[in-house]
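Long-time lurker, finally posting.

We've been working with MFS transporter (Streptomyces desertarenae) and I want a structural starting point before designing mutants. I don't trust myself to interpret raw outputs, so I'm hoping someone here can both generate the structure tokens and explain anything notable. Sequence follows.
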Amino acid sequence: MPLALLALALGAFGIGTTEFVIMGVLPEVAEDFGVSIPTAGWLVTGYALGVLFGAPLLTVLGTRVSRKKMLMLLMGLFIAGNVLSAAAPAFGVMLAGRVVASLAHGAFFGIGSVVAAGLVAPGKKASAISLMFMGLTAANVVGVPLGTHIGQAAGWRVTFFLVAALGVVGLLGVAALVPEAGRPRGADVRSEFAAFRNVQVWLAMAMTVLGYGGVFAAITYIAPMMTEVAGYGTGAVTWLLVLFGAGMFAGNLLGGRLADRALMPLLFTALGALTLVLLLFTATAHDKVLAAVTLTLVGTLGFATVPPLQKRVLDQASAAPTLASAANIGAFNLGNALAAWLGGTVIAAGFGYTSPNWVGALLSGTALLLSLLAAFLDRRTRRPGRVAATGGPTAPAPAAVRR
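Top reply, 14 upvotes:
Generated this for you. Predicted structure of MFS transporter:
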């Protein structure tokens, strides 16, 4: 494994911790600021929206500097946002801190995906991307549960100060291990935006929004669901998040390996199974053992879609992948924002803490339908004489991603 992938994974670990740890300490934050659980859910939605808008904006700005320098600048922004969150005197200030930290998220993973894919042979690109995302999944096995435990024992502010420290480690790792390759060849705003002429890029991002949104619909309100419905104590939330993180870790590695062999069949299987599991979660949430098993499966199936979806975007936008890659990270978080908002809405409407699972099943089921449409369009464009989905003649096989 190239050491640069380890550096990217270190940055991903810090980012993953801050993204998900808020869910474990959501009740404590809500109580501290005197707001309701659905209102506190805006800390998830606000973060996701920051990723959505920050990813393309900062990526476009980053075409003027080398990818290594941009990754370092992004980690600095991440550190500043988490310090602001930790020291926030009011809910609005903490929300602002979450947004500041989130601005670095999408561009880091988007640029990092291109860097990771460029470090390995063409047939191992999805595996390289999954190794970078391994830092994100490891955060859910170690960082998030530990942060949740610390937040419940010593206060959530301590958690976010420690997350800022993780950002410092990630910054040092990028500085030391990622090679300085100079500004990307041919990088300019016009060429990067040209990738969005391909309808398959839009379909892939729509699958990302809806498929991963299905996961977030369930996981955003996992703490009240497990304590109020399944009957777990508050302290058990930490270990339940370990199970979810372990599922994500396994799903990410499995998805990375299988996506290099059979990308679309993997998406069909993972999205179909995720839809079914989310439907079952409404019932299994009432039993401690079944709830824990289902939560693990949600993590596994949900993250098994991440490497193939990211690789599909890179393949479809191979001539100018950086902006499209970052936009797809934004799409993951648009799904997060949509799901967190819809989940809070159905809870506030009185449908109970299990109702977000129905929302998640609807979202992931729609993603499955879109994946079938994308495969159908692929088959059409490969037939002799057919017109490509971009509106022109059938394109040649995607070129390898440039470093």
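Before you design anything, note these points.
Confidence is low (pLDDT under 50) at residues 386-403.
The chain is about 80% helix and 0% strand.
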